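new request in #modeling-help
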Amino acid sequence: MDDDLPTDFQVIVVGTGMVESIVAAACSRIGKNVLHLDSSDHYGGLWASYNFDGLQKFIKEVNSDPKRQQQVYNLSEKWYIEKETPQEEKKEEGQDKTEDSKAEPPKKVWSQANFTSEYRKFNIDMTPKLLFSRGPLVELLISSNIARYAEFRCVTRVLTWLNDRLMPVPCSRADVFATEAVSIVEKRMLMKMLTSIVGYNEEEMNNEFKDWNDKTFKEYLTHKGLTPNLIHYVLYAIAGGTDKMPCLEGVKECKKFLMSLGRYGNTPFLWPMYGSGELPQCFCRLCAVFGGVYCLNRPIDKVETKTVDEGKTMVTIESKSKTLNCDHLVIGINECPKELLSPEPAESCDISKAIFITNGTILPSEKEPLSLLRFPPLTEEDNAVTVLEVGPATGSCPKGLFVVYFITNKVKDAESDLMPYAEKIFDMSGGDQTVTSDKPKCLWSLFYNAADGGGAGSGAASGADGVFVCAGPDSGLDFDRAVSQAEEIFKQICPGEEFLPRAPDPEEIVFEDDVTHGPEFRREDDDADGDAPKE
Amino acid sequence: MHGRVKVRTTEEEKARKEKEKQEKLKVFKHAMQKIWDKRKKEELDLELMELTGKVLTSNPDIYTLWNIRREILNIFRKDMESEGQQLVDLYDAELRLTEYCLKINPKSYCAWHQREWVLTTRSNPDWKTELALCNKYLKFDERNFHTWDYRRFVISQCKPSLKEEFDYTTEKLLDNFSNYSAWHYRSKILVDLHPDLEAGRPIEDEHHKHELKMVESAAFTDPDDTSAWFYQRWLLGAVKTTVDLVVCTISPLKTTVAFNEPVSKDYVQMTTNLLINDVSVNGEWLPCEGKKYNNVWIFKHNEIIGDNFDIKVEYNRENVDKLTILCIQKNSLYIGRNNISFQRKYSEPVIKELKKQLDSCRQLLTMEPDNKWTLLTTTFLLHCINAKHYHNEVIDILKTLQIKDKMHAGYYGDLITKWSIELQLEDDYRNEELELKVKFAEKISSLPHLHYYSFCENVNLFNQNLTSRVLSTLSVLQHCKKLSLENNNLTTLKGFPSLNLEELNLRGNKDLDMKEVEIFKQQNNYNVIF
């Protein structure tokens, strides 16, 4: 097989993370000759979704060879349940299944063995992210027509932690109308604040905020006479900020949130079915449709750049003792040889993450919820914590379970940063699963830290000409940074070209006779009899 | 390169679409021609069903084709004595067709109508399916009033639990409260589901309060959304109202009786009885305003009215004690006034809720002193809680609104007029004058409650803002001798009713046409001053 692989490409992309995949698709889309490689056997790199088995392999890999995977560290996995379900209960379970429809079976008791046997029903994200309904990625998916490769679910609610309990945040007009948590005068205050933030044009914006440059958003909200409850909703839940958040940033974040309301659901967010790890693959698919060549399980050993005539750079890489040449090399930070990385250590703002698998939702509701919880910092030193809870309807886990992601900027390490928050909403005691309590039981947890060396601006930089290093995942909620970085890299590789123009639908494609078609196209071609329109 | 896709250019795509369109047009024209031909030949058969069906699937709004289909179905219906399987199938197919068409245009009047026709024509209609269809379409578009209309039709046939329907409106309003149809439907169900039969009020206290709270929440969430305000206005008006006799006037020339609301001839005949010197008088009731329901009725009788008579009017309503009104002589008139009150009567708990809402409004006004809807609602709440007590404040706010919201200055002016007249009326009814004159500073722009003054001999509307629009309402002034419309804004005398005046003053109406007044003078035998 290796022999079949051509050796000369215009663009070689190494790593199938989000940024790399978007660049690959964009280059391929405008006719560049693209080779896309990944050292592992799956797509996504640091952005991947794993089933439970795949996740176990990943954990093992990182723990056994920390040097190989420097982007992820402090990995700590923990079980809160038995290895096996006791023999007797297994029998009962069998009986239950036959008369499943009759009576509500008692709450399932999960064991590690259950997880192993149902491993394929899990899709666990290493980089869980939401999409703002009017965010850059949604717009890109639509404008490029790549959205047809993906499916989404609407986030059903935004929650916050207020007065020591979980509270839904009234963020849309319908929510504000329905909520009983705020008085009607507060409703008016809140709506007024929200609509004025959305409505400000640039001039009004400059006018309203001219004296607020060096003040915090909290000061502004207080100045506007909002009650403490409302300040909490707007500052922590809608703007996703902390007490220190600068005023203008808060306004910007609020506006972004509010502009995304009402497009798809009752909240501004979408969650990709089967996990965020699906999204890089959508771009890879487009790349392949336009002729990109894919090769997984293909680590690279060496990268060299040399100047050929007229100052043009050629990049050569060695992979499995084969030499591949290209004009441009795009490489994910996790695949990148150290010598190519900028020598000065990037601004360190690593991320603390945690994944929990629980036996119920954090706040019961009528239909299966899909929640975003924004935790305000519990202590002065802490950062705000973003929590995403996804259920079986998203294809993330088997029925009866929920996967909950925690993300925050690192202070100490993942476990000490996040455990206090997890304890607020989960029962971490590992006790009897059948006992109903007000908190869901945590069955399994994983804490880890992820490096983020790709602060804004440094994305397209690299040590060598013709080589572009793509940053890993950031701690942001959406894919904003990945999209803008990909576009930046693309513009340097293909100056003046359009970034991901709309891909045609099948009926817009002309099939010519001298082209070799795949089998499924052939039939259509015969039917259509050239391109004469059908009746 | 292998696998590279070639994409049609926009020009090619345009040409392809244009060609497709032309083809479609040709097919359409051909089919329509064939349909007309067949109908002319009276070939009302299955083939015509098929043809019309095909055209409708691409254009559901050709109502003629739906008419033809009903024609055909009616023929089949008559031909087949009992509703056999064939006819059942045809009805089913018709329902499927309408559903298909509604998918193309959910606001197609004729498709919804066809569906209603099929269901009322066939036997054993399946209302459950229809209700499910309504739910489906309201999920697509919760504001599609066609669907709400259709839902009311379905409900009227299958009569499901009102509670469920009520909860359904709640659900839809929680999704989006800018929904006139849902609020309207809610109001209809509310009075059926929770009437307060004991107290004779339209809505039970607890539910009245709940609705007021709900609509307040909507209004405070988005004060610029009018749908909630309309529902609130309806709720405020949902008080016990009874028809009452207001005033009776007996003169040697004419006998009139005025009611607070328009009533029918049957009603007057049944309830009202004139007694002169304790003898019941026979006669005929004639409408004063020439309508079926009138505020003022004229009693035509042959009795001669002299001085110092004992004149009474008995007013006898169902379930209420008989009321006898003594008519007291003043000049040549005998006038019997009833006790009147314009204060809306709410129950204690509702009043309490209204006061709470008033507080919220006032609080809101300190934050947003200029919000029109908050200001207006404040006036309504004040008026509903205690019109007399808050009168000056109400008028002040309405005057502010006239300045702030110029587009609706006329509306605010009419409110000022109405509420000021109401207050004056209660006073005037305690005096025994035979004169109407405006006793407050604000100029009136309309003549509300004029029938309350039907007894007046002297009506002085000097220096007001009246226009010719009000002329026809003057017909209730059956006993008026001297009428002054001096210094108003009359532009024509069209619609001026025939009255037995002695003097009419039209001076100072700048835009009144001299010629028209001359002709008017000739037609009427009273003194017209101009």
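bot summary: The mean pLDDT of chain A is 87.
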